[in-house]
Every structure is written in C-alpha cells, then in structure tokens.
Design goal:
528 residues; alpha/beta; Spore Coat Polysaccharide Biosynthesis Protein SpsA, Chain A; Cation-dependent Mannose-6-phosphate Receptor, Chain A; 3 domains; seven-stranded mixed β-sheet; 16 helices; 30% helix; binds 2-acetamido-2-deoxy-beta-D-glucopyranose; acetylglucosaminyltransferase activity; DUF604
Length: 528
C-alpha cells in the first residue's frame, strides 16, 4: 500500500521513539487514545448512522461503511476534528470511492459477500474410536453445540456415554468393497474420504458448505464464516491449503487441500462428488490417504483448489511458536496436529495452552495471530506482535521484512532444520544471546469496557535462560509485561495492509502499545 503518497496525513508512529524515556513516560501519562476513540466513536457513529440511512443496507455497504468509520475515527483522534469525509453532502457510495485509494481497495476486497452463516455450514470431523477419548477435548474447544451442525465420524461406536459437549457421532459405512493397494497405507483412508459424501447424503437442509477437519484440529469458526462469505456457494468451490512440508507437498501435491488443516467444499461440488466418488475411489487404489483421494476425485470434476493460508495442516514438529509469530496476513482458520506439535505456550500442557488461546480468540477472533510491527526509541527496540499470542522484542533494528519471516523454532515433518524443507520464509534465531528476541506470551485478553472499549491483551515475559535476562540490555530485562490495546476490529481491515502500532508508554516493568489502522503514508518503522 505504500505508493509514495505521503500527502495530507502526517505519520505519528514512532514519534515517541525519538524521545528520551523520561519524556516518553510524561507524555504517555497525558495520552488517552482509547478515551479519545470512544468520543470519536460516538460522534462518528451518529454520522455513520445517518450515512447508513441514506445508502442502502446491503452487507457490502455495511462493511465498507464501518471501514470508513474506523478510518475516519483514526483521523479524528489524530486531528481532533472531523474529517470532511463525513460532511453531510458526501454520503453517496460513488463519492466515497473517490476519496482515497486505500478505501477503493477495501471496497474491491469485500465486493462479494454471500451472507454465509454458521447455520449454513455442516462440519465433518474425521475421527477414530480409539483416540476419541483424548482428542475430544480439542473438538470441545471450538464446538458450540447450539449454533453448529456436524458429526464426528467413527469406525465403531465407542464404549460409554457420548460427550454432550461434542458434536454427535455417526458410524461410517463399510468400505470393504473398495480397492486399497498402497503398501504401508491404512484402509481407514477410504472411510475418511467418504465423509463429505456421507454427510451430503444425510440430506440436511440449508447447507451451503461442508467443512472437513480432523479430531486433532481446532477451527476458528467466526473467521471461517467470514472467509466463506467471499465465495458464491452456488458455484463449485474446493478451498484449503497445502502442507508446511515441502517434501509432503512434492510427494502428494501442492494442489490438494490437506485434510487435517481442514477444507471447505461448496454444496454443488459435494453433490457432484456424491455421485462420482465411489467410482472414482476404485480408479486410484494406490493413493495413500483420504485427502489425496478427495483431491483426485475433485480434480476429475475439473475443480482446482482455491488456496487459503488461514488453514494450517501444521506438518511440523517441535515448538510451533515461530509459525504463529509470523502468520500470513489472513484470518486464521485452523490449527492441526495438536497432538504432535509442542504446546502452544511454554510450560503449559497442550490442553491448558489451547484453552488459554481459545479464551483469547473468543474475545476477538479476527485479530488472532495478526502481526503488527513497531519500533521504539529511534529503532533501538523492534517489536513484533502476534495478536493474542506472543510479542517478540529485539534489541536494535530488525527490519520489517525480517520480522515477517517465521523464526525457526520448529523442525520439518521429517525432523530437519534445513530451510529447503519449508515452502515459506524461515529465519534462524541468532546464536548471539543479545540478538535473540525476548518473548512475552499471552496472559489475558479482554474488552476493557470501563474506561475505553479497547481490547486489552496482556503478555508476560517468558523467562528462558537462553533468550531472556541475558544481561545485554538492562532496560528490556526489567520489563515484565507488555500491554497491547487495540480498537475492536471487524473483518473489514483485511485489506492488504497490516495494522500500525505505537509504543505509548514504557515504565520500568511495563510497556504499553497501541494498535490501530495505519494512516495513509504511515511508515511501520516510524518517522523517516
Ligand atoms: C470397548 O471395550 C472393549 C472391552 O473392554 C474393548 O475391547 C474395546 O477395544 C473398546 N472399544 C473402544 C472403541 O474403546
Ligand atoms: C463389511 O462388509 C464385509 C463384506 O461385505 C464384511 O465381511 C465385514 O464384516 C463388514 N464389516 C463390518 C465392520 O461390518
Ligand atoms: C481499563 O482501562 C483503564 C484505562 O486505561 C485502566 O485504568 C484499567 O486498569 C483497565 N482495566 C483493567 C481490568 O485492566
Ligand atoms: C522504576 O524503577 C526505579 C529505579 O529502579 C524505582 O525507584 C521505581 O520505584 C520504579 N517504578 C515503578 C513504578 O516500578
């Protein structure tokens, strides 16, 4: 979005970065950005309401209206006056589009919205009876039985009573008539392949999408609904993502949706698959799993994958922090292999860590793992926030493009550190303890209604002998927590630009950062 237009708006990010700590503290005492936002919000919603009464009330326009509102709020907060955009003559959508280039992009991104609702989705969870008793806890973390429809597909009934907080189960049909010839493979693949079509054949009403996932996958359903709203459910769609293992992708395909990461199939495609799949299965007995069979059969129908980087197969081993610290700029949709990857948070069991994460996601799912990069004190400190998860603080200047690369805290699916294994940018964590980031992990997240209506996310220092308290820098060593405040988001900010951050206050043990939409021409690295 940086197009060399540094017109009207003055960049204020990093302004504090150039001041001494004492002045920074003093200034920050007088700053009440969220309070200002509340005032701005009240004013602008009055104007937005009147705007909405003039323009039609379609989803598309509502989304763009709210985007304009937040963009406008930002300007108001900066300028202490209303931007002329909201002057009463200027409400027609055609005029809006002329206002500035950023807003045109937003309009384009959200032009198509099909009002998909959670009600129109049916989930199919590929499970095994033997592992269900332990894996059901993952499913329970995202499943809401009152608002969601779907089934856990098993090979045999389980012993004991069925968990009432899990989706109901179904027993897959017998697949012994299908050929399976893959040496060292598992015939269960046939059963799992047919989940889409067996679900389709249940004949449920008002279904637009079938979404598949494994029993060790969590799904971020708010984000999923928003993502699917961009696609016409009357067309054939196959939406998913490839593996984080280059070897897996070359062995199977870069063009298939990996099943554990989850994928979505629109109703017309599921209907077509339901008639062709059984014949198709016997054409490819040599394939390995269920997802490559689904891919093979969908390819016979001439439908290619639509890739979405929010789905995470997570074919990695070890500490997943690096991948989630530098998430692509798209809403997170899933995390798979929760039983194989290390715990999401240090010194917490996998399940306790997952619950902490999902509590944060319930406060605001859209922003989860979205990366904001900012600097303090004339770039003497570099910050990368992965919202709702971790803040990395580096001494010295680390360029934004470097912070966007995943720090390699994990190994490949085959246990390698070699960068050739990863079909994305990874970066080694420096050996020099002074160059290692100090990590602050999520502690809590809540909507602070009392003072401001901001979302507050508190991150606490992770004390790791090798990466913290390294004696390199007293100032950062004495920081115990980072508090990030942000304006609540709708999904309209998923334009191709990150949010901007600003260090508001740095007192001995606490750093306060404020995150909000960037201004036009604003630089992440602060003033030129
Ligand atoms: C159910 O219990 C029986 C007898 O204890 C056992 O053999 C079987 O494996 C169990 N089934 C499952 C799915 O746990
Ligand atoms: C599946 O069908 C085959 C042959 O039709 C039969 O031998 C087998 O017992 C069936 N399996 C189950 C689990 O019902
Ligand atoms: C909410 O924000 C106000 C003003 O910034 C702050 O004083 C208060 O501590 C916050 N609430 C909580 C629970 O942290
Ligand atoms: C900040 O640090 C100074 C010097 O170490 C100390 O005297 C002061 O009490 C600290 N302030 C807070 C709020 O912790």
């Amino acid at each position: 979005m940086a197009r060399g237009e540094h017109g009207g708006q003055t960049s204020t990010s990093g302004l504090l970065g150039g001041l001494s700590p004492q002045i920074e503290e003093k200034l920050s005492g007088n700053r009440k950005p969220c309070l200002m936002f509340t005032v701005a919000c009240v004013l602008s919603s009055i104007f937005a309401l009147s705007a909405l009464s003039i323009i039609t009330n379609s989803c598309e326009e509502r989304i763009s209206a709210s985007t304009f509102r937040s963009a406008s709020m930002e300007r108001m907060a900066q300028n202490y006056r209303m931007h002329s955009f909201y002057s009463s003559e200027d409400h027609s959508p055609s005029k809006k589009r002329k206002i500035d280039s950023e807003e045109i992009v937003i309009d384009d991104v959200f032009k198509k919205s099909y009002n998909t609702n959670l009600k129109n989705i049916v989930f199919g969870i590929a499970a095994s009876s033997k592992l269900w008793q332990s894996r059901k806890y993952y499913v329970r973390e995202w499943w809401q039985k009152r608002t969601m429809r779907g089934y856990v597909w098993l090979e045999t009934p389980i012993n004991g009573t069925w968990d009432e907080f899990a989706p109901p189960f179904k027993i897959s049909a017998n697949t012994s008539q299908f050929k399976y010839s893959r040496p060292k493979g598992n015939r269960a693949a046939l059963r799992l392949t047919r989940i889409v079509t067996e679900t389709f054949k249940l004949g449920l009403k008002n279904v637009d999408w079938f979404v598949m996932g494994d029993d060790d996958t969590i799904i971020f359903t708010d984000n999923l609904v928003r993502m699917l709203s961009n696609y016409d459910p009357k067309q054939m769609h196959y939406i998913g993502s490839h593996s984080e293992s280059h070897v897996q992708n070359t062995r199977f395909s870069y063009s298939m949706a990996y099943g554990g990461g989850g994928f979505a199939i629109s109703y017309p495609l599921a209907r077509a698959l339901a008639t062709t799949q059984d014949g198709c299965l016997n054409r490819y007995p040599e394939l390995f799993g269920s997802d490559d069979r689904v891919h093979a059969c969908i390819t016979e129908l001439g439908v290619p994958i639509t890739k979405n980087q929010g789905f995470h197969q997570f074919d990695i081993r070890g500490n997943p922090m690096g991948l989630l610290a530098a998430h692509p700029m798209t809403p997170v949709l899933s995390i798979h292999h929760l039983d194989i990857i290390g715990s999401l948070f240090p010194r917490k069991s996998r399940l306790v860590a997952l619950r902490l994460l999902m509590r944060a996601a319930r406060v605001e799912q859209a922003s989860m793992f979205q990366q904001t990069i900012t600097y303090a004190q004339q770039r003497r400190y570099s910050f990368s926030i992965s919202s709702g998860y971790v803040v990395r603080v580096y001494q010295g200047f680390v360029a934004p493009w470097e912070l966007e690369e995943a720090p390699r805290t994990f190994y490949s699916w085959y246990g390698s550190k070699n960068h050739d294994h990863f079909p994305f940018d990874v970066r080694e964590i420096p050996d020099d303890p002074c160059e290692k980031p100090t990590l602050f992990f999520l502690s809590k997240r809540f909507l602070n209604n009392t003072a401001s209506g901001c979302i507050e996310t508190v991150y606490l220092k992770h004390r790791l002998s090798e990466s913290n308290s390294n004696g390199c820098d007293e100032r950062i060593n004495s920081v115990e927590r980072i508090r990030v405040r942000s304006t609540p988001l709708d999904h309209s900010w998923f334009m191709p630009r990150r949010l901007c951050g600003r260090v508001e206050m740095w007192k001995n043990d606490t750093i306060d950062i404020f995150v909000r939409p960037c201004q036009q021409g604003e630089l992440v690295v602060g003033v030129h």
